[in-house]
Specification:
The protein is built from five helices and four strands, in the order ββαββαααα. The protein is an alpha+beta fold.
C-alpha cells in the first residue's frame, strides 16, 4: 500500500495481530488452519486474501465474522477489541463476499432488490423513499449508474 494514500492521523478500521486458529483433529492433534496472520485495513482500503486452496483464507474470514473463535491473537475493529463487540454490530459493519457470485447473488433478482436486502435485514431503513435515497447514494459512491438498479 502506498504510504501517500494512508493518512498518518487516521486509525485503521481493522487490525489483526498474530491471529491463530487451531482445530482439534481427533487422533491427529491440532490442525494449524491459521498461524500468525497480521494486517491492517484503513479507511478507503480494500483487502484481498490470496493463496492456494486450504491455506486458511476462509478461516480468517470466519474468525473475523466470529463464526469461529480465535485460538490466539488480537483483532480490533475501530480500535475496540472485536470480541467485546456485539455480533449484530459486527455484521452491520463487515460482510463476507464469497468467491462464487452464484452463491452470493441470485441472478433472478434485480440489483435494487439485492442491495436493498442489507438495509432491510439490518433494520437501517424500510422500503420507501428513504431506501431509494440510500440506494442512489450507494450508486454514486461505487460508480454504478442508477438506471442499472432495476436490471
Amino acid at each position: 500500500m502506498s504510504e501517500q494514500i494512508r493518512d498518518e492521523k487516521k486509525q485503521p478500521l481493522l487490525t489483526v495481530s498474530h491471529l491463530k486458529k487451531y482445530f482439534k483433529v481427533s487422533g491427529k492433534g491440532m490442525l494449524h488452519a491459521v498461524d500468525d496472520v497480521s494486517f491492517e485495513v484503513y479507511p478507503g482500503e480494500t483487502l484481498g486474501l490470496v493463496g492456494e486452496s486450504g491455506c486458511g483464507k476462509s478461516t480468517v474470514g470466519n474468525v473475523l465474522m466470529q463464526l469461529h473463535n480465535k485460538t490466539d491473537g488480537e483483532v480490533t475493529l475501530n480500535g475496540k477489541d472485536m470480541y467485546s463487540i456485539n455480533k449484530k454490530e459486527i455484521c452491520r459493519q463487515m460482510q463476507i463476499i464469497f468467491q462464487d457470485p452464484y452463491s452470493s447473488l441470485n441472478p433472478r433478482q434485480t440489483i435494487r432488490t439485492i442491495l436493498s436486502e442489507a438495509y432491510i435485514i439490518q433494520k437501517i431503513c424500510k422500503k420507501g423513499p428513504e431506501l431509494d435515497k440510500r440506494l442512489l447514494e450507494l450508486c454514486e459512491a461505487i460508480g454504478l449508474a442508477p438506471e442499472l438498479l432495476d436490471r
